[in-house]
Amino acid sequence: MAEPYKITQSEGKGSGVFAISTIPPGTTIMCDTPVLKLPRKLAQYTDEEVFRAFKELDEDSQARVMELHEGHRAFKTKLMRIFKANNFGYERFCVVYPKVSRINHSCVPNAAMNTRENLTTEIVATQPIRKGEEVYITYNGLFEGMTAGRRYRTLRAYYGFECRCPACALPPNDLILSDARRQLISVLDAKIRGFEPPNFHLIDHLTPTTAEQLAMQIRYDRMPLETPLTLPERAAYNLMLAKLLQAEHLTTSVVDAYRNAAYHLAEQMLQHEDIVIVACCQNVQAWMTKAIEAATSINGVESARAKSLGDEWREWQTVDHFKVYNMSRQGNLTDPGFLDGRDFAVRIGMFGPAHCSVLTMTALSRRECRALMQERLQKTSSL
Ligand SMILES: [Zn+2]
């Protein structure tokens, strides 16, 4: 299939990648394989290391590396400047992509990198891109959680440009809100992953001379959380994260955040095997629906992500809790107490001998449900 983009001049940014036809979300815009690849290390790369990897390439690949944007950082050789301006860091390797390197940065990107284990990467549209519009990715996931001021300092120090994306060009009052949201995103995202939030204060003291050391510190200074999050925290943090990401138009991680919020709430609910809290089921359903909607609009209806979420949700609904919830929604719950307003929760029980037992359902008011849970809590803590 013909590629839906062309590389041409982008005002004030050198070259850029532009859509030559309308690109719906979920479309693979570009595929690329690394032209230069170095094993990831904790210290800075030396000129020799980069040169050694470069020398092993055939002539054609060498030429493709040397024609990339060289940036402005104070390294001795042009090769090192190109490497520094264009490399992407993964867990085990640092690589340079010849085509992806042509894509400019935005703090509100309309495309994302989808990298496989063999480091081949696909640039996939995460928002509808109109014909003639420029394609943007974000150069570093950490930008999602940085204030505009810190993004400005970072982008200027490492990439030598001033970002004029919609998030950086907001009017002052909106910018305050956006900054607050992004700071919260960084805290929530780190905690959900099991880490203390990254120390972005270091960026406030970024100068061309400290930039190289700080880059390493921000990347590796990640302290694990002292106390892991509880299930209610996991659900709540993921839900907040999803809403903040949506408000910032950062679509890529929205799907996972809603799905994880639903998953952790369901997990929490299933700790009581026999109690179905109606509002919990309602929330799980609402958040799973949002995850599926987001996956459909970002990845496309036919996408593997949308389909697997749909399958997952169907599987959850085979659990007794959701069966009972569905019965209550369809008015098929016969306990008169439920219709009488004691509709906060339903207690599931079994009646009769094991071989022919029947499922019984008893309606519980909020007070009854709380009393029952408290009684159990006391029993477990006295054990
Ligand atoms: Zn920006």
Summarize, please.
This protein has 383 residues and is α+β, with helices and mostly antiparallel strands. Helix content is 44%, strand content 15%.
Task: Please describe the topology of this protein.
Layout: E1 5-10, E2 14-19, E3 28-32, E4 36-39, H1 47-55, H2 59-66, H3 78-86, E5 87-89, E6 93-96, E7 104-105, E8 111-115, E9 121-125, E10 136-137, H4 148-159, H5 172-192, H6 211-220, H7 231-247, H8 254-269, E11 275-277, H9 278-299, H10 304-316, H11 320-329, H12 336-339, E12 345-351, E13 358-364, H13 366-382
Parallel strand pairs: 7-10
Antiparallel strand pairs: 1-2, 3-9, 4-6, 5-6, 8-9, 11-12, 12-13
Helix pairs in contact: 5-7, 7-8, 8-9, 9-10
Bound molecules: zinc ion.
Describe the structure.
With 383 residues, this protein is of the alpha+beta class. Among the domains are: 97 residues, no CATH class; 132 residues, no CATH class. It contains 13 helices and 13 strands. Strands 3-9-8 form a 3-stranded antiparallel β-sheet, with no helix packed on it. Strands 4-6-5 form a 3-stranded antiparallel β-sheet. Helix 5 packs antiparallel against helix 7 and helix 9 runs antiparallel to helix 10. The longest helix has 22 residues. It is elongated. The model has no long low-confidence stretch (mean pLDDT 90). The protein binds zinc ion. InterPro entries: SET_dom, SET_dom_sf, SET_domain_protein. It holds the Pfam family SET. This is SET domain-containing protein.
